[in-house]
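in:
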């Protein structure tokens, strides 16, 4: 099976192999943006970033109303950070992490050992073709990964099919404003390939599209929190991390492409043109 074409994971896996202490701390468990309840308190320290990344997971899981004895599927599970967090804070959960990339799953498997009578397993598959029977899960989570999937609609259909009635899908995503939408459509064009650090990314789904998608697939949209102000310090941290990497290893410098991308994301976030949302949907 394909490992997905995500150059940033090649970078992270190489740095983790080399035991880069910054990358191990900030992206060794969660591979997503941080959440600061008060963004003014953010520093650019690795440990502060790691704590903020953990907090983003907690904010998202809170929307899913997870209770004891639940069956949880975390799609696009990365290095298993969300599964690890639930495993540490809950008991008697049945936890499945799913990812398209076997290299990430190998790290997840090594990092997460079941605690508190939880069951933990990992599975290699495509989020748009879930290898599970109907009505298996109480919760489906998708933390900062849906923009990579071949189709949001197909993933929603699969999440709906595999959720029990009353179950929830909770996810986080980059959501453009309507004003910015026409520009996101060009993001996969040739012109932007030089920024192709993140691989296939579709960030052309507005909140209006999510409302329509929920209706078309049978979900009720329960929560749509725009948390853009709370994630913005992520970009300052990334600038610091990438700057340090380039300073140390000039031969690995990528001509400032990643710096330019981070600067662009900062501006788009500050102008609320590309927002970060936590979304929760309920299967009636
Ligand atoms: C930004 S990372 C987020 C990882 C994890 N959810 C976290 O928060 O730490 C995006 C993840 O989506 C996964 N992914 C991309 N395309 C996928 C697909 N079609 N099916 C399953 N996982 C996919 C990637 O391998 C990666 O682990």
């Amino acid at each position: 099976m394909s490992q997905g074409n995500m150059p940033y994971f090649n970078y992270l896996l190489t740095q983790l192999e080399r035991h880069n202490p910054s990358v191990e701390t900030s992206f060794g468990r969660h591979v997503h943006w941080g959440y600061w309840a008060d963004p003014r308190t953010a520093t650019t320290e690795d440990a502060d970033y790691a704590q903020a990344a953990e907090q983003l997971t907690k904010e998202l899981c809170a929307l899913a109303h997870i209770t004891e004895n639940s069956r949880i599927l975390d799609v696009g599970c990365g290095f298993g950070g969300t599964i690890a967090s639930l495993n540490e804070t809950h008991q008697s959960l049945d936890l499945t992490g799913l990812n398209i990339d076997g290299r990430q799953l190998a790290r997840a498997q090594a990092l997460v050992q079941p605690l508190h009578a939880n069951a933990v397993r990992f599975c290699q598959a495509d989020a748009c073709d879930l290898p599970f029977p109907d009505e298996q899960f109480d919760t489906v989570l998708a933390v900062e990964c849906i923009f990579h999937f071949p189709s949001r609609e197909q993933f929603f259909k699969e999440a709906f099919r595999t959720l029990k009635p009353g179950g929830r899908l909770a996810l986080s995503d980059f959501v453009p404003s309507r004003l910015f939408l026409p520009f996101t459509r060009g993001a996969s064009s040739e012109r932007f390939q030089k920024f192709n650090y993140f691989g296939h990314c579709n960030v052309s789904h507005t909140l209006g599209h999510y409302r329509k998608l929920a209706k078309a697939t049978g979900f009720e949209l329960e929560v749509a929190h725009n948390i853009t102000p709370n994630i913005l310090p992520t970009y300052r941290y990334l600038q610091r991390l990438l700057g340090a990497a380039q300073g140390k290893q000039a031969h690995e410098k990528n001509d400032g492409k990643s710096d330019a991308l981070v600067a662009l994301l900062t501006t788009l976030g500050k102008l609320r043109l590309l927002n970060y949302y936590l979304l929760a949907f309920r299967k009636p």
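note: Residues 106 and 112 are 10 Å apart (CA to CA).
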